[in-house]
């Protein structure tokens, strides 16, 4: 019995030894150089994150956004990228974008995306254990730094030579400049010169993003008769504008709320019988309990996983709006925002390549994030042009809120994962 146990132990140890050899063979000597650089520069990563977080850069603070851009521009200049600042027209009230490019011919042509603007401002960098607090630390300045240091590691290992890589940091991801044909024109042009798109928005667990829902807005305007409330529902007064608006919203809910990945949200509802005003996202109205309301304005959003789903939902909404209660009328208008990044097989192929990198590094399996768990993002403006993958940036929490933070401990791991993926794609 003792001899049998010994033989079993020898077999187990041999299997473990063979597996160790196999693992060491998964990472090439050149890839190991890349990993060594990242291990040696952890504190540099955190120092750069502090620099860019301490620069206040909400979208409307164009000087602050550009200052972040100039900090990053210097870093890209130092590793051989050709950089330029893309100005936007003054009337757009947006800072512009940073473009950095290597114009080689080797391997896949990559477009790498980040953004420099934040929603809020005011909280400076503060390190507390493995967390870094500060406005924009999670969304997405940690992702910007991860993108940069993946490329710095490749540069240090001599692995950027003759590669074709375009990096674009936008200055208005949180509130795209209008018209988007102009504010995203350079991104679209870069995507047309690329084979693959990788975006460094925040990571969700150990997973990545193959699809993101798009967002658009709608405005519903309802009119009716007005007069003494004792006459409501009569032949000369009808149902009134608020009842008609309520009917429409309820039927929107009944017809659409169970459709997967489709959501709609009436965010502002203003109605009354006298002054009814809507200005952007705020409104005002007056009315009396004994007067039938004759005007309603409602604004809301619509989120969707594909253009087909968006157009189908809009058609249903128009049909509902057209079936009016007595002596009322209604019209609905739609405004496009950010398109959908629709999941497809090419995106899943990229995900499988990232998964292989992660497992080769011993970082575990990478799976797809449910598109319903993500909001809209810049990558959707170009994901129809090339296979795309998002969620390669930093981990953190409280995005778009006070107390935003980034997980410092995970940043070297995420840089390694991104760097080896880029290395393999560009061989």
CATH H-tier superfamily of the largest domain: Zn peptidases
Helix content: 25-40%
How does the overall form come out from the CA principal axes?
A: elongated
Whole-number radius of gyration?
Answer: 27 Å
- CATH architecture designation of the largest domain: 3-Layer(aba) Sandwich
What's the arrangement of strands in the largest beta sheet?
1-2-6-3-7-14
Query: Which topology of the largest domain does CATH recognise?
Result: Aminopeptidase
Percentage beta strand: 15-25%
Give the tally of β-strands: 16
**What's the number of structural domains?**
2
Largest sheet: 6 strands, mixed
What does this structure look like?
The protein has helices at residues 2-26, 29-40, 42-53, 62-78, 137-156, 180-183, 185-192, 241-256, 307-322, 345-360, 411-425, and strands at 82-86, 97-103, 106-115, 126-128, 131-133, 163-170, 196-199, 214-224, 263-272, 276-279, 282-285, 295-304, 328-338, 388-389, 396-397, 405-407. The protein has a 6-stranded mixed β-sheet, sandwiched between helices. It has a 4-stranded antiparallel β-sheet with strand order 4-5-16-15. Strands 9-12-8-13 form a 4-stranded antiparallel β-sheet, with helices on one face. With 427 residues, the protein is α+β, with helices and mostly antiparallel strands. It is elongated, with a radius of gyration of 27 Å. Helix 3 (42-53) crosses helix 5 (137-156) and helix 5 packs across helix 11. It has 2 domains: 25-212 and 341-425, 3-Layer(aba) Sandwich (Aminopeptidase), CATH 3.40.630.10; 214-338, Alpha-Beta Plaits (2-Layer Sandwich). A hairpin with a 2-residue loop joins strand 10 and strand 11.
């Amino acid at each position: 019995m003792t001899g049998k146990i010994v033989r079993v132990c020898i077999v187990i140890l041999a299997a473990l030894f063979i597996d160790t050899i196999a693992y060491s063979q998964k990472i090439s000597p050149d890839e190991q150089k890349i990993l060594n650089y990242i291990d040696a520069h952890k504190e540099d990563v955190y120092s750069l994150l502090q620099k860019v977080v301490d620069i206040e850069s909400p979208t409307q603070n164009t000087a602050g956004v550009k200052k972040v851009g100039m900090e990053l521009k210097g870093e890209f200049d130092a590793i051989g990228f050709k950089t330029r600042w893309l100005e936007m027209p003054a009337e757009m009230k947006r800072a512009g974008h940073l473009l950095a490019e290597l114009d080689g011919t080797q391997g896949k042509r990559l477009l790498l995306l980040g953004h420099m603007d934040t929603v809020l401002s005011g909280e400076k960098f503060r390190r507390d254990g493995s967390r870094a607090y500060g406005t924009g630390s999670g969304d997405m300045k940690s992702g910007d730094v991860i993108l940069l240091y993946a490329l710095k590691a490749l540069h240090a290992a001599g692995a950027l030579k003759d590669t074709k890589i375009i990096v674009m940091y936008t200055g208005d991801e949180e509130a795209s400049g209008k018209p988007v044909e102009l504010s995203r024109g350079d991104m679209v042009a870069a995507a047309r010169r690329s084979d693959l798109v990788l975006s460094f928005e925040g990571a969700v667990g150990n997973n990545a993003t193959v699809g993101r829902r798009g967002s658009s807005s709608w405005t519903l305007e309802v009119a009716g008769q007005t007069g003494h409330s004792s006459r409501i529902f009569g032949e000369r007064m009808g149902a009134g504008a608020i009842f008609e608006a309520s009917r429409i919203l309820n039927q929107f809910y009944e017809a659409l709320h169970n459709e997967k990945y489709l959501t709609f949200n009436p965010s502002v509802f203003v109605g009354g019988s006298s002054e009814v005003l809507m200005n952007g996202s705020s409104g005002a109205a007056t009315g009396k309990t004994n007067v039938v309301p004759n005007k309603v304005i409602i604004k809301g959003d619509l989120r969707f996983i594909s253009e087909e789903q968006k157009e189908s939902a809009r058609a249903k909404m128009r049909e509902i709006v057209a079936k009016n209660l007595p002596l009322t009328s209604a019209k609905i208008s739609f405004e496009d925002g950010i398109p959908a990044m629709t999941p497809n097989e090419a995106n899943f192929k990229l995900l499988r390549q990232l998964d292989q990198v992660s497992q080769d590094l011993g970082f575990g399996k990478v799976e797809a994030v449910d598109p319903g768990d993500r909001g809209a993002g810049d990558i959707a403006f170009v994901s129809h042009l090339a296979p795309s993958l998002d969620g390669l940036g930093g981990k953190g929490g409280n995005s778009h809120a006070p107390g935003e933070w980034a997980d410092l401990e995970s940043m070297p791991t995420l840089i390694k994962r991104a760097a080896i993926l880029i290395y393999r794609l560009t061989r």
